[in-house]
Amino acid sequence: MLQVTYENFLDLKYFASSVFYPLEGFMNYEEYKKVIYEMQLLNGEIWTLPITLEVDDFKDIYVGQKQDLYYQDKFIGNIQIEDKFCVQDQDLYEIFQTKDEKHPGIIKEKKRSSLRVGGKIELKEEFYKDSLYKNILKDVFNVDIKTIVGFQTRNPIHRAHEHLQRIALEICDALFINPLTGWKKQGDFTEAAVMSAYKTMFDKFYPKDRVYIQGLQTAMRYAGPKEAIFHALLRRNMGCTHFIIGRDHAGVGDYYGIYEAQKLAKDLSMRYDLGIDFLLLKEPYYCSKCQKIVSEKNCAHYKEYRIAISGTQIRKDLSEGKIPSELMMRSEISASILALGRENIFID
Hints:
Elements: E1 2-3, H1 6-16, E2 25-26, H2 29-38, E3 53-54, E4 66-71, E5 74-86, H3 89-96, H4 104-111, E6 115-123, H5 125-129, H6 136-140, E7 148-153, H7 159-171, E8 174-179, H8 191-204, E9 211-213, H9 225-237, E10 242-245, H10 260-271, E11 277-280, E12 285-287, E13 292-294, H11 302-305, E14 306-308, H12 311-319, H13 331-338
């Protein structure tokens, strides 16, 4: 039998709810390599990040056998083993498009076991009945909703994100805010901080019949453009027709160009039918001349009157117990976050 990690346990839920469609199990070596180096599954469909099952050792694991899967000593299903292989450093460099060992995604991956197995899975029936995400949007929105735009975030809502979301609501019938609530790096906002901010936004400012929020329990990879496409494919499988990609989607530090994810999305969507449309939106900022939130596409004052909506400054202010500038974050949002207490705002 194989004891699965918490992250792989969540992966199994996504298999059950078709969030990982068209995957039917953990990737074998051939598919793993094709995804990493060509961003495709063996069937030719676009997929940009590997989904693999890690094990502590290969003892008593043989290709062709069926192994039971357990989580916290509870039987959850089984896997028909097709392959066993080892993750190499070069694979990580290709996934994250850098050889910098300080990249948070590489650091995290190197803490995991490098030993992986692949194969199709069969799960207990309760997994399929109690899925967190199966038909989630069909159950939420009424029949008049034809287009749903997904928004990925790992942060509380600030003015720039609000601007993007309001644009999306002008284009689509409904907005699905799907914050990532799995593993994030130290210093990122907690799930409590993100959800508190959005609860305030929903209660005070957004139309309740056209906006919905639910967390996505998967790890943040910080893989930039490749992760942006991965995020879009998951939201497609959850029922979204559109997906927002803004500035430096899934980026960290200066590892990726600020619109590199948009470039990849545009390139792939021109060559393949991804089953989802992209809203590729420029970075919003406050223009002191226009006296409103704008972007370089609709404002002539980028160089002279631009006031950046800085996530770094927002973090700094909140960490010091201060209310950030109203230009960057609504005071009602800031207050709801600060009410949690410093120890509940940031990941240690």
